[in-house]
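Exercise 7.
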Amino acid sequence: MKTAGIVIAVILVIALIFGGWFISGLNRVVRLDENVNSAWAQVENQLQRRNDLIPNLVNTVKGFAEQEREVFTRVTELRSQWAKSDTQAQKIETANKITGALSRLLLVAERYPQLKSNQNFLALQSQLEGTENRIAVERMRYNNAVKAFNSYRRTVFGGFFASLRGLNEPREYFEVSETAKEVPEVSF
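Solution. The predicted structure, written as tokens, is:
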């Protein structure tokens, strides 16, 4: 009788350890997925902040550089396109295009010395620079969350737990587009 009690206790302890490990694995993949979602929401917050600043920047520059209509049109189109994007991949692609278009818009501003001294433009440019820095920080945090999730998902047991939770697909990194890697030409 005493031996049977010990066997039952050992089996119970093993079951508790296994059950705790199993539940912990399921919960970890969910926490990692939520970290990715939370980090993406912060990226979107900063991208939205930038998109809210764009009309003011465009209008300020437009007053000085009406002949640069193509740049203004492209920036406005991309801002609308970002708002209509449904997936993270589409938003990442559009955000990268907006970054390139804003670089061109700021280069247009370089051609107009009176614009560079305009207080409204300087304030907007400062806000935009700050926002771009915030986007870079949030993009880094998002990519770190994606790395943690994807790394865990690729481990033996992580992949098992991810598949049980329906989180089989790797998350996509927010990478810089090829056009953003090009150095813009600035001439005075």
